Structure formats: structure tokens, C-alpha cells
Amino acid sequence: MIRYALICEHDHAFEGWFGASGDFDDQLERGLLECPACGSKAVRKQIMAPAVAGTKRTTPDAPPQMRAMMMEAMQRVRAHVEENFDYVGDAFASEARAIHEGRSEDRGIYGEASPGEVKKLVEDGVPVAPLPAAAPKKTQVN
Known about the structure:
The chain has 4 helices and 5 strands. By secondary structure, it is of the alpha+beta class. The protein folds into 2 domains: 2-45, no CATH class; 64-134, no CATH class.
């Protein structure tokens, strides 16, 4: 993802996130960009310093209790999906597409898909999301 600092003709500053550098120009040309403050479509990039990855850590670790709370929430999401959705295994991509296209019963599913299959589903507008990883078994934790 690329973040651009943008500004409209009325000097309203905002930011936009784009999948590739050419996406800004493409969306601007197609009239898809507008100022969130005034609706102006006369939008341009502002001059900005590039964000360069370095070796210094810029954000501290989350406090242990917050990390534990986040892990618990992710496991509850996973448990809900496993209890309420249909497991379709490695047929996930084809079944998700069939549901999206109305060729299969509309229901929640989960399963496995390759990164390439997931990318194609997303490109085609099929709503998918990664399932949080299962918690490690107590025997696997140090």
C-alpha cells in the first residue's frame, strides 16, 4: 500500500491509500477521487517525505494484558467461525466463488486456499478474510 498526502483546490489536506503508485493517477483520471471535506474533485498530491523503513523501533510493544486480551478476542472469533460456519477444506475458493455468484447456498464457510486463490477472489470482489490462527497447544508452548 502507498499513502499519499493529498490536498484539494480549497486547501483541505487529507490522505489517500493506494494499492500501487499508478492507482492515484488512474482514479484521478476516472473522477473517483474527491475531498472528504468539500467534495471537490480537483485533488493533487502534496509534497511529502518518504517513509523509509529503518532498524529503530518506533512503536513500543503492547502491554502484556492488552496482548492477552487481543489473543483471547482472536480465539473467540475463530471459535465462533468453527462452531457456526461450514468447513469446506481446500474447496474454499471454489465454494466462496459459487456462493458469491449465487450458484450455491448463501452461508458462512471456512477452509483453506492458496495465496493465489485468495488474491483472485479479492480481485473478483468475493468477500473473504483470514481466520485467526489457532492457539498453540499447551504442549507446544515453552
